[in-house]
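Hey all, quick one. A colleague (J.T.) asked me to put the hypoxanthine job into the tracker so the inputs and the structure tokens live in one place instead of scattered across chat threads. No bug as far as I know, just bookkeeping. Sequence used:
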Amino acid sequence: MDGAHERVRAATAYICAHTEHRPSIGLILGSGLGTLAKRLTAPDIIRYDEIPHFPRSTVAGHAGQLVIGTLAGAQVLVMQGRVHYYEGYSPAQITFPVRVMHLLGVRTLIVTNAAGSLRSDLAPGDLMAIKDHLNLPGLAGHHPLRGSNDDAFGPRFPSMSQVYDPELLTILHQEAKRQGVALKEGTYVMVAGPSFETPAEVRFLRSTGADAVGMSTVPEAVVARQGGMRVLGISLISNVAADSLRKEPVEATHEKVQEVGETMTPILGALIEGTVARLT
Ligand code: HPA
């Protein structure tokens, strides 16, 4: 992306001029999970459409604003609403906010999403810590780092051998245990969307070894890693991915995904707040 660094700088400068906070932790919140931002104290709110070059969310349930403030003693930046590949953005555009966060000084990225279960012991309402991912669009060429590489962002061929930080995972598990919150762990596979999967696609995805499927998170995690950020990912299981073998098929709908998100937001919010407290 030619001039990408200048665009990132312009967006970063705008944000710096509109808040005194200097966040070191970034949070990207998925469908129905945005209300976590209400936990921030002294928040400054900046709408995406004010920020130069920032992508705008077009999906219901995604507010489309940055909330920057203090959470559990840490300066954090919350992306309340994200943009997705299926909205028509390129993988590079989707991850523009992660570049901006990096330039702002964010070194830890916490990403949440809603996901469909591919595993019999993952039920709607369950939380799954992301241990690894499968970048299906990326493997097929729709990769956020495709194109000329700006060394200021990170290496041309970054390692993805450990995307999700083991130490952060341990801290998250410790906090979940302290709060009595059941936390599972698994591999997240990203699909492009926006249609939900057919039963045949679900069988295919299961055969890849993935545990949960969703339409986000992976491009952001890849770019964060290229920049050397530590990444923590949490999926909220909102539905069971389509399965024709079930007697009563559980249809994934956007409303269902949002509904589970809204129900689980207080629990996930407390878990994230407790985890952030352990980081500071
Ligand atoms: N499939 C893909 N993406 C999703 C799903 C699903 O079942 N649920 C939430 N996001």
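Adding what we noticed when we looked at it: The mean pLDDT is 90. The radius of gyration is 18 Å.
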